């Protein structure tokens, strides 16, 4: 299906006004692109350690979509394009030409009392296939440790791979394709410690790629948790595409640090390994209590740690009298830290 894509070039300070104006005209799905970054409060709320440095600019763009004539009678057409932006259905009382004229009038009026920048409107026509399938060409087979990571769409034509050393991933789902340095660091560390029938706890499991690796290395009972409902939903799917049974796997939605029901479930295990590929803001408090869930000699593997905060995590591990630091490894800007329960 095709969609008309309209982009208004403006200034960051005018985006709120422009969005309100567009909503007043019946356009309810909007996309804003700017270089403002995020506030410290937003950074903390989203558990973000690493924020890219953006070029200094107050330029901004407001984008909205409408259906093309080709879509009007298409029963397959829905109200969202594949970027997740709501598309204005052809129930508006204006044609696109009338709509654009009204927007131009509103922008001209706004320019009299605020800086709206260029205020130009550009049009493009996008097709679902522009993003629906083309991105797949960029996800290629690659190696992590002794594993080979492959996209799921290669599975049907893949007959020569060693099943126990191949991990199939559906990349468009929850976090964890194996390409990120933190995921790779954790997989390599799991290879060092996982033995047959070991109990493994995957805290913040994402796509479950670490659990899949652990299972293929011989792990037995497993507990997986994540605060993201999407992650919890896709775990069974990802185990299935890897031909792994899930009878001895328990998946829970929630935060181990605050959810007493999850703590209670975790207490029922005797974990050989706890792995957490999250962020320093979670790893630090987890380091204070993780020994509660580990058997003596059990291993705590943590990553998702930006190098600038590695010392904080090491200090948190050292502060737990029941843990001893084992190893610190770095790949690019990211660090993995492992410890053993005394």
Question: Descriptors for this entry?
Answer:
single chain, 342 residues, alpha/beta, Alpha-Beta Plaits, Rossmann fold, 2 domains, seven-stranded mixed sheet, five-stranded mixed sheet, 28% strand
Write the layout of secondary structure elements.
Elements: E1 2-11, H1 15-24, E2 31-34, H2 40-45, E3 59-67, E4 87-88, H3 96-110, E5 121-127, H4 129-132, E6 142-144, E7 147-151, E8 166-169, H5 181-193, E9 200-203, H6 209-216, E10 222-226, H7 229-241, E11 249-253, H8 260-267, E12 271-277, H9 280-287, E13 294-306, H10 310-319, E14 323-331, E15 334-341
Parallel strand pairs: 3-4, 7-8, 9-10, 9-12, 10-11, 12-13
Antiparallel strand pairs: 1-3, 1-5, 2-3, 6-7, 13-15, 14-15
Helix pairs in contact: 5-6, 9-10
């Amino acid at each position: 299906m095709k969609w008309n894509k309209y982009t208004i070039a403006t200034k960051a300070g005018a985006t709120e006004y422009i969005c309100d104006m567009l909503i007043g005209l019946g356009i309810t799905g909007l996309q804003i692109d700017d270089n403002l970054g995020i506030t410290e409060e937003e950074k903390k709320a989203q558990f973000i350690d690493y924020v890219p440095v953006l070029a200094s600019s107050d330029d901004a763009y407001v984008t909205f979509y409408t259906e093309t004539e080709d879509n009007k009678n298409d029963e397959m057409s829905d109200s969202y394009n594949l970027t997740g932006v709501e598309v204005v259905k052809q129930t508006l009382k204006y044609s696109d030409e009338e709509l654009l004229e009204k927007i131009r009038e509103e922008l001209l009026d706004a320019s009299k009392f605020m800086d709206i920048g260029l205020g130009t409107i550009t049009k493009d026509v996008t097709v679902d296939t522009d993003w629906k399938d083309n991105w797949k060409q960029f996800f290629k087979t690659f190696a992590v440790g002794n594993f080979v990571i492959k996209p799921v769409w290669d599975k049907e034509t893949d007959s020569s791979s060693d099943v126990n050393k191949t991990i199939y991933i559906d990349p468009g789902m929850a976090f964890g394709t194996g390409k990120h340095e933190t995921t790779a660091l954790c997989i390599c560390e799991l290879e060092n410690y996982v033995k047959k029938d070991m109990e493994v706890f995957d805290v913040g499991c994402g796509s479950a790629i670490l659990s899949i690796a652990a299972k293929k290395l011989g792990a037995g009972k497993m507990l997986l948790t994540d605060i993201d409902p999407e992650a919890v939903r896709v775990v069974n799917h990802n185990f299935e595409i890897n031909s792994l049974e899930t009878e001895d796997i328990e998946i829970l939605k929630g935060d181990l640090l605050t959810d007493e029901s999850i703590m209670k479930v975790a207490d029922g295990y005797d974990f050989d390994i706890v792995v957490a590929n999250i962020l320093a803001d979670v790893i630090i408090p987890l380091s204070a209590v993780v020994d509660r869930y580990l058997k003596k000699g059990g291993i705590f593997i943590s990553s998702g740690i930006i190098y600038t905060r590695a010392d904080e995590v090491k200090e948190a591990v050292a502060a737990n009298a029941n843990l001893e630091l084992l190893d610190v490894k770095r790949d690019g800007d990211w660090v993995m830290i492992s410890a053993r329960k005394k």
